[in-house]
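User: Some background: our group keeps a shared notebook of sequences we're curious about, and every so often someone picks one and asks for a predicted structure to add to the entry. Today it's my turn. The entry only has the sequence so far, pasted here. Could you supply the structure so I can complete it?
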Amino acid sequence: MQDKYVADVGDFGKFQLFRYLFNHKESPMDGKELAQIWFMHEGEGEENNDGRHIDYFERMMGSDEYLEDSLLNLIMRDKREVTELESLKLLKNAKFFYEKVPRALEDRYLWLNTALTFSSKVQVVAVAPDNGMALKCKRGEQRFEFLTLEKHYSQKVYPHKYIFADEVRYFYQLPHLEVCIVYQHLNRCFAHNVQIESLLGDLRKEYFHVIAIKHKPYSPRAFFFLCKSEVIKDSIEMRLDMFATEFSEFWEVFR
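Assistant: Of course. Here's the predicted structure to add to the notebook entry:
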């Protein structure tokens, strides 16, 4: 996560979704404590235009007025900083982890241990690396290989922009955790919906109770909900269905 992403369309989608899940009394997630793990870094050596999609407000108008006003205010004040998101109080019962992801593998393990300790007593953890899970595209098979810190860390040019498969597992195994939400930026390997279906199938082999929702605008992305039980998964699925029905232009649920 970098400051330049703050208040872009991806940020709007994330908080629109999370506010619908965590800020409503009729939601099964209401009252759950959330740990938001930002994979913070400064984008060293990167030259791109990521974070430029901040012209979406008219299109999203009326979907969440408090969120719209809050993010627009950040842009108008030129305060596109990750720490400002917490000060806006967009989510109830949420805490945010800002420690920067180190480059060296041995330091990455220390960072991971700190993030796990930070999350050790919450019911929900949301991990937000820039690009999502570290994957290797198998284009011909229309599937992915999941990469691990232990074996594949050096294969990624920017490993700080990814969460690796063993890291997801460590978060999921936290004793108080009920749901781990994993962000995934969809790529050009093959069709986006096929990517989501492929990842769902593979994640269910390990985590069993998994559902996904896709945010459609601009560069599409998905959120995977890895649930500890079928009861939790079913209750979240009902809420996501309501959300996607209300905002069908922007969101789509995958089971």
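Suggested note for the entry: The longest helix spans residues 230-246. The chain has a mean pLDDT of 89.
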